[in-house]
């Protein structure tokens, strides 16, 4: 909590000190280790942040955090191929909509357009009511020229929320 307050006050140096102290008391605290990655990014030390994320993966191989963070950092570095591998592992460990979208974006940036659908459709089978993933999926389908499929998903969203201006706009574009 103290590290978050320091980050909120734009003081990553103090946040680092607070996290280092916390990790002395509780060395295997995944959230504190993940927060150290964010501190390194805030300090402009992206290579250090990536090394911390990779170390987090080694120390906690059953936690998705290190994989998601590494994926984010690799995408920021313009390396979607490596990012996709990290997001895939993260998704396998802890399936969620955020990582499904991140993995799909990495695949798409890598040029694997047809593979983009896999994490999105998998997640929607698990949680069909995830509107943000469905909206992203419908937009991807539209951008790929699969208009009938896109319209079906946009209409599904409109049934749930008929006045949703974002969905109405996306459907109008389609």
Amino- and carboxy-terminal Cα gap: 45 Å
The rough form would be described as elongated
Percent of sequence in beta strands: under 5%
Structural class: mainly alpha
Description of the structure:
This protein has 174 residues and is mainly alpha-helical. It is 76% helix and 0% strand. It contains eleven helices and no strands. It has helices spanning 2-8, 12-25, 30-42, 46-59, 65-76, 80-93, 97-109, 117-126, 131-143, 147-160, 165-173. The longest helix is centred in the first third of the chain and has 14 residues, at 12-25. The mean pLDDT is 92.
Write out key terms for the chains shown.
174 residues; mainly alpha; 76% helix
Topology:
Layout: H1 2-8, H2 12-25, H3 30-42, H4 46-59, H5 65-76, H6 80-93, H7 97-109, H8 117-126, H9 131-143, H10 147-160, H11 165-173
Helix pairs in contact: 1-2, 2-3, 3-4, 4-5, 5-6, 5-7, 6-7, 7-8, 8-9, 9-10, 10-11
